[in-house]
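Sequence in, structure out. Go.
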Amino acid sequence: KDADAALRYGMLVLRGGDKAEAQRWLLRALELAEAPPVNSRVVTMAGRLLVGVSLEAADLQIRQGRFLEALALIESARRHARQPGQFTECFVRQELCLVKRNDFTALRALYESMIQSDPDFGVGSDPEIPVRYYASIMLARLLSASAGRELDVISLYESLLAAPDNLTFERLPLRQLAVNALAALLEARGRGHYAEREAEAAALLKHGDRASLQRALRQYPLALASDDAALQLALADFAAGAYLPAAAFINGLFDELAQRPRRGELLALLALCQYRGGEALRARLTAMRALREFPEGSLSLEGRRASFKEWLEPLLKVAPSPEDVALPPRMASPLTELWSESWKAGTPFITIPAQPAPGTSPLLYMARMSGELPLMGVNPKDGSLAFTGGQNGLLGLNQCIRTKDGVLLVFTRGFVFVTDRGETRWTARLAASPDDVDVRDGMILYSSVGTRSASRQMRIAALDAVSGAQTWETTLDAQDVLWLRQTPLGVVALLAGSEDQLLLLDIESGREIRRAKLPNASARNSRARPFMLNDQLCITDERGMVRLFALEDFSVKAQVASNLVRPSMCLPFKGQVLVVGYPGAALVDAAAGKTVWRATFDREDIHDRALMGDVLALALSRDYETARVVGLSMADGKQVFSEVIETAEKEERLKLKAAVALQDGAAFGFAVTDISMGMPLLKGFRLVVLDKTGRRRLDWSKPAAGSVEYMQLSAVDGYIVVAADQTTHCFGAKE
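Output:
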């Protein structure tokens, strides 16, 4: 009469293998434990053991094909079950037994009883869902195999529409699973079976209030009136200026059901919401999709109805990058050294690339080649550190690109996006160096070397500038990507391979649209980068031939010979093209097919160039013995000035290391060398700043015997910065 003793004896007998005798004692223990006062511990353990014995025997009967015996054992286990998990085990085996027996009548009765009684146990895992939902899904699938049961199937799936969002089945939220199934049913059997729901949704739509519209959308997601309700809700948010909430709402609609009756209008409205909400990239991609899928569509908005083309074409225009329209940095007057700072111990190099277009306040972006936080934002006034950031292993800082939200910093091994306050928005590490980086309207384009080693492979990828997430990538068989740019027609790339080619990619997916072979296959040997000129692509080849290509078909629209070989620079200038190469410089009018002016220099090499507004400065030397800077008028190519840069000693040589253009002048950085025992020996560094008339505004030098010949030169508004001899120097006007 002791429940504990009966339980222990039953467990002992069970270990001995006599299951029938064990069951008798376990039943006795359960009976005694359930008598007042209830011994819950014994009830739980005895019930679990009884259920386990019965189900183990049922599994054996199922394997042997003796389904009636198995069902009896499962029923016995259910009578002894006390915990939700035990009921689940019984249900799963009963379902399996009926399926194997092909007893679909009993199976349907099982599902119906679970739906009606709604017992407190679940089925499945991660997460487990209430058996009522599971039975509704399985019964709907069972009934959908038979014609004439469509209304029952619809009712069963509708019972899932209000299920909690965290419940999933077959990796889908229950509501999403139900919507997908209903859409497939109506497509296969016809929308006539949904007529009653259509009428109920239309009645809710007539009420017009927000609650009724939301109810129609929630309860009748496949009704045509529900799409009308969705559009009215989104338009109301748009009119209230809640552009991003409206965009999130429409995206949620498409996530639930992509092919909606009013998909076109919702897509167009989504693009406009994204655009006015500041998401230019997403707006442009959505607008392209809407125009491609619905070229004749129209939308009523803000009191008028207009075509999608009229509403969305402004969104397709690729806005110029702030870097494209920014003026060169201003030159301070007078120039003097403001501060200098030695590099920290263990810093091999500091990289200071061309600085971005001005932000809210002047800031110098530079990076150490080592350390946990290599990125530095430095106040040019006094050299104080405004912020640090980045990650170890990003290596050198190669490019700084201004966007409307901050600055994109391009490193040798990735990207860092920072605000003007120095807050890091995101960091992306890459396996290969990003090249040809183009940022505009929220999209970052770049190329890098691919991963396949059998042959040369290049990769082009697009990132979302807001989050750094990858939008798409494509891999190309090519030796190099020479140039990459977003255009209104798509992404244009200049490829070098066995033959040079122009490639047009879809801006949404990176899919190839068109490619064309370049004349003479010589773009790869030209250091002059292509650029856009009056909506045409300007490419200068190694022979100095300037060509304009139409983006629509990559046909040559105009060409003119500059008569300069191996061009090092090619820039737009007031609708014309400035070319610098050997043996001089020229301004050509490609559209008219003529040379405006041409200047040449006999027996002198051009080492660098800087465009100072309407004056072109060229740094020249003859056998590295003398150095001079020549200024040419951009109006007629005539010489404005010629400034010889002397050396302190006759044996010294000046080696140009860098040049930076300013609004009203240019800065040139030199390494000063001498010849010792037939070998060049570094003696120091020199910075010369000239204005547009050739007058020296600064001539600074620093001895650096024993140092490495490494020099970085950059500028921001009112400041010039030099990194050399393990020290950073900044020049400007003292306040």
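Check: The longest helix spans residues 40-63. The two ends are 101 Å apart (CA to CA).
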